[in-house]
Amino acid sequence: MGGMQPVSPAWRMFRRMQYSAFLLGALIYAAAVTHAWRVLPGAPGFKVERMVLYPGLYFLATLLVPLLAPPVRRLLQTHLWISFRTGFGQSVVSVLAVVLILTLAAAFIYADTASAARGGRFPASAFSAYAAGVGVLLAQALMVRRIERDPALRLRIDAAR
């Protein structure tokens, strides 16, 4: 951490939750793409476009806008700070809530994929929406470190010991 003192256990747990939520979301997305690739009809180029390239644009947008646009960055920092102060990510219930939300979103992609495999519409929008969500999760995980380096907030983080 480059000479900085360790943070409070509550903040460490909150930070770990942000990283874990991103990792779980990314793994679910990768599993959904792998599954869809096997069961959906279409040429490989078409599948790459609809499951990787177009969703990748949504991922990048939701990752970069909060990190580069000051008004959006402040909103996300406020959201993260309020989440920390209310104990989110620091209890079994809140961790299970995140897992449940990610699982429900994954179920939506799998249901859309199953429908498309039976002749329905290709689930490109489901992949794009989920990729956008994963982008936000990564932005939050990165923003936690930025909050940690803010001297005014660092004092409040340390006070939460």
Structural summary, described in words:
This protein is mainly α. It has one domain (9-159). Helix content is 83%, strand content 0%. It is built from six helices and no strands. The chain has helices at residues 9-39, 44-68, 70-85, 92-117, 124-149, 151-159. Helix 3 crosses helix 5. The longest helix is centred in the N-terminal third of the chain and has 31 residues, at 9-39. The protein is elongated, with a radius of gyration of 18 Å. The protein starts with 8 loop residues before the first helix and ends with a helix. The model has no long low-confidence stretch (mean pLDDT 90).
Main β-sheet description: none
Query: Which class of secondary structure composition applies to the elements?
Result: mainly alpha
- Total number of strands: 0
- The domain tally reads 1
What percentage of residues falls in helices of 4 or more residues? over 70%
Taken as a percent bin, the fraction of beta residues is: under 5%
- By DSSP (H or I, 4+ residues per run), the number of helices equals 6
The quaternary structure here is single chain
Give the low-confidence spans.
none
Q: Secondary-structure element order, as H and E?
A: HHHHHH
Q: N- to C-terminal separation?
A: 18 Å
Global mean pLDDT: 90
Shape: elongated
What is the CA-atom radius of gyration, in angstroms? 18 Å
